[in-house]
Each structure stands twice: as structure tokens, then as C-alpha cells.
Design goal:
With about 120 residues, the protein is an alpha+beta fold. It is built from four helices and five strands; from the N terminus they run βαβαββααβ. It has a five-stranded mixed sheet. It is globular and about 40 Å long. The relative contact order is 0.31. About 10% of the residues have low confidence.
Length: about 120
């Protein structure tokens, strides 16, 4: 089951400069290698093909090979909606359904602090 937590409207109206999504996947036994290949390709295509996708990081915890964490930044919620409608995301979602035991999605507004 996937749950999407939306940012509060009060924070959304502040001086944020992006819309972030985090996704935590708990993988089925034996699914890590295939899932890692598919999620890496989805991330590459998202950044390359979606003008509103600013960042798409795939994190693999050192101690837990059955977990994957995504950190995605979009220009706004509309850009994330474009991502969800994209052919590469739909293909990824379809191909990974049987590989994922649990998926948790959260949405945030972003105040970026990064080196140029």
C-alpha cells in the first residue's frame, strides 16, 4: 500500500523553492538486484526527460540490502504530477510491483541550501 503525505498549506505558502518527494521501499527477498537496475534507470530518465525534475537521488542503506530510499526534487507539485504520468515512471511502477513489499511516500516543500 502506498501512502502520500502532503506538506501543510501553511508551509507551502512560504518561501520554499521546490517540491520534494521521499520514497522508502522495502523489497521482497531476492529482489534487490533487479530493483536497483530499474530504479536507477527511472531516476536517469526522470532527470533527463522531465524539465521540472531537478534532482532524483537513489540511496542504498549500507546495512540493509532490502531497503531503498529515493529523494526527488521537482520545481513544484505540477512537475511531480508530470513525472507520475510519464511513460518511464509507469513502466517502472509496473515492473517493480512484485519486487516491493512496502512503499512509503512523503511530500515536502524545500528550502534548498547547497553549494553552487
Amino acid at each position: 500500500m502506498t501512502t502520500l503525505q502532503q506538506p501543510s498549506m501553511e508551509r507551502e505558502n512560504s518561501a520554499a523553492n521546490g517540491y520534494a518527494i521521499t520514497v522508502t521501499f522495502e523489497l521482497e527477498d531476492g529482489a534487490a538486484e533487479k530493483f536497483h537496475r530499474l530504479v536507477a534507470e527511472n531516476a536517469r530518465q526522470s532527470v533527463a526527460l522531465e524539465p521540472g525534475c531537478i534532482r532524483f537521488d537513489v540511496l542504498f542503506p549500507v546495512a540493509h540490502t532490502h531497503e531503498v530510499f529515493l529523494y526527488e526534487i521537482y520545481t513544484d507539485q505540477a512537475a511531480f504530477d508530470v513525472h507520475l504520468a510519464s511513460a518511464h515512471f509507469k513502466s517502472f511502477d509496473e515492473q517493480t510491483r512484485t519486487l516491493v513489499r512496502k512503499k512509503t511516500v512523503n511530500a515536502f516543500t524545500v528550502d534548498q541550501n547547497a553549494k553552487a
